Amino acid sequence: MPSGQAAVDAGAALAPHAKQKSRWWVLAVISLAYLMVILDATIVSIALPSAQKALHFNNDDRQWIVTAYSLAFGSLLLLGGRLADLFGRKRTFIVGIVGFAAASAVGGAATGFTMLVIARSIQGGFGALLAPTALSLLTTTFTDPKERARAFGIYGAVAGSGAAIGLVLGGVLTQYLDWRWTLYVNDVLAVIALTGTIVFLGRAVPTQRPKLDVPGVLIVSVGLFCTVFGFANAETHPWGNWEVWGFLAAGVVLLLAFVGWESRARHPLLPLRIVADRNRGAALFAALIASAGLFGVFLFLTYYLQGTLGYSPVQNGIAFLPMIAMVMLFAQLSTNLLVPRLGPKVIVPIGLLAAAVGMAWLTRLGLHSTYAQQVLPPLLVIGAGVGMSMPVAISQATLGVQPSDQGVASASANTAQQIGGSISTALLNTLAASAAVSYLLTHSVGPLAQANATIHSYATAYWWAAGFFAVGSLVTVILFRRKGVPRRG
To answer: Residue 71 sits in a domain of what CATH number?
Structure first.
């Protein structure tokens, strides 16, 4: 195990660009590339009705445009992170950008449903290569504690607001251009990111080349695929359907088998020391919980704004802008001012608790609520809470990890976020649907009762999302060590 100074020196050897004045341009490039991956989880959702009309596929097929991306992305993240450690981060980053852009171009030019689904799958695969590489580049570029705090504040703001930005951009592009531009826009972003990478990012050769754990790759990739696929099926099938519980059970078994294999593998894909540390475990759990709760906001508040209040897609996206602003503001405050003084043990739980309060506040929305009085205040509180917790969690998940393991450690943080989103989308959809049915069984039938049942179903989802955040607050306050310094992993 290298000492703290040796690890910093090794990180500098891996990332000579860290000492260049251009490192803040490197941060801009990294953040732009990561934003491209994150917003693609939601930007296409807004365009689905238009794409369905143009390509003539049915409602049952529609979910696969989103699921194809999340399946490939979620199941290949750990492999993508290790490939960055193995082949060098700049090279892997460039391959990820180019591949993602090419898949986006194919998807935008799709002439049928199958072509679009295949393109989305390839997008997800290259996204799994790009996302952990971006985070590991950030970690090895910024080794000074003060600069690292500022960098992770910016990066964490992108992570916390990327999905909402996708809603805004997706609405604008679909309404004023064409649904295909929700995919083509990635090519515009990719050209900028690729140019910045070539100009500003120094070439670094890994001083240690970890060997690829092929059995571990196969076990965890199939296990994550089954887990994400099981939750995706839960959105359209009853939980008792074998396509739900069968895949979820297989996913759990395979992930447990992965842990067993990694504990005795000579060259583990994910050294267990990385996730066994209390601070990193708390950080990964916080990232999972924050993602799960955020999807509750985006999903059901979008339904409410468009379905109940009659917002257009563009208005819907604009409605989330104040929350994005709060995420960005509190991301900087938490990483630069609060955590250095109080530590993650205080700041992350407070942030998650604030988000829980905001979610509970959303349960008061009714058929005739107004945006300024009833929607905006809880959105601001949620944005502040996420801004306090998400960037700190991502930073802590990679802090103190050996440079040769930064890629796979970064992939672990991305995986936690992906699984959190998958769990939330499936579970909250099911709970909301059940709540609507239960409401109608005990109330008179009619348009008003149907509308109130819908509002009740949204409130149920908000309560559960608030519960996610509250549990996350409790667990992280227990797990985080008081001084908040992870052991060298």
So the answer is: 1.20.1250.20
